[in-house]
Every structure is written in structure tokens, then in C-alpha cells.
Amino acid sequence: MSEYYQTEPQGEVKDQPWFTNQVIKLEIDAEIWAPAGFLSSLTGIEAALGRQRSVPGGPRPLDMDIIAWGDLVMDSEFLTLPHPRAKKRAFVLIPLKELAPDFVFPDGTTIDKALDAIDYRLEDFKIWQDS
């Protein structure tokens, strides 16, 4: 698990509390979980903890995403891997680099190259980024 990072709200809904972000690396048994089934379970946990998807980008008690599933590339109505916005989000890349400093996206983009391509500021465990 990475450290916790505080991130200013991104996107359209700026008038809300800052988010707390963390990346967790899991080893998943492919005989037990497929990516879509795992995401479905995460969505169920979010709902059980009060997540409502009525305001995209709005406040929520919990938001769990799958950033990558090994080298798998997929694009379905329910799940796109790697996460389509991961390379543009400092709040994903910074804690991901903490866990996997040599991480390479399936398209060959390194974590360092992805970070170099975006404009952000990091102070201690606070991240600012214009969206």
C-alpha cells in the first residue's frame, strides 16, 4: 500500500473537500477473479459503504478503481484497462510510482514519462493538479 495523498478536487465539481488517495497492489488469482468480476465486487463494496453515483466527480465516501491488470488491455462498456485516465492523474501516478517505481503501461509508457507529461505540484503528501 502506498502512503495516503491529499488531492484537490478535479474536474467540474471544485467546491468539495479534498480527496484522500492511495494505490494498493494486489496479487489476484486468475482462476478465481476476472477483471470485470473483480470490479463488480469493488462496486458492491462502494455501494455498501454509501457510494451514490448521482454526481460524477462529486463527493463520495469511497471510490475504488482498477488501474491495471498486468499487461492486459481491454475496452468494454463496463471496464477499460489500463484505466483510461491513469496516465493523466498525478493522484494515481505518484502513489503508483511509490509501489512500482519501474511500472510500464502496456503501451510502453513508463511511470516517469507519464509524470513528466502532466503539470502537477507535490508538497509532502499533498497533490495539486489542474484538470
From TrEMBL:
Q: Where is the 7,8-dihydro-6-hydroxymethylpterin-pyrophosphokinase domain?
A: 1-101
Enzyme class, spelled out: transferase
Q: Which organism is it from?
A: Pseudodesulfovibrio sediminis
Primary role: Catalyzes the transfer of pyrophosphate from adenosine triphosphate (ATP) to 6-hydroxymethyl-7,8-dihydropterin, an enzymatic step in folate biosynthesis pathway.
State the name under which the record lists this protein.
2-amino-4-hydroxy-6-hydroxymethyldihydropteridine pyrophosphokinase
InterPro entries, per this entry?
Hppk, Hppk_sf
Q: What is its EC number?
A: 2.7.6.3
Pathway of action? Cofactor biosynthesis; tetrahydrofolate biosynthesis; 2-amino-4-hydroxy-6-hydroxymethyl-7,8-dihydropteridine diphosphate from 7,8-dihydroneopterin triphosphate: step 4/4
Q: Keywords, A to Z?
A: ATP-binding, Folate biosynthesis, Kinase, Nucleotide-binding, Transferase
Task: List the Gene3D superfamilies hit by this protein, alphabetically.
Answer: 7,8-Dihydro-6-hydroxymethylpterin-pyrophosphokinase HPPK (3.30.70.560)
Q: Which family does it belong to?
A: Belongs to the HPPK family.
- Say if the entry is tagged with keyword Magnesium: no
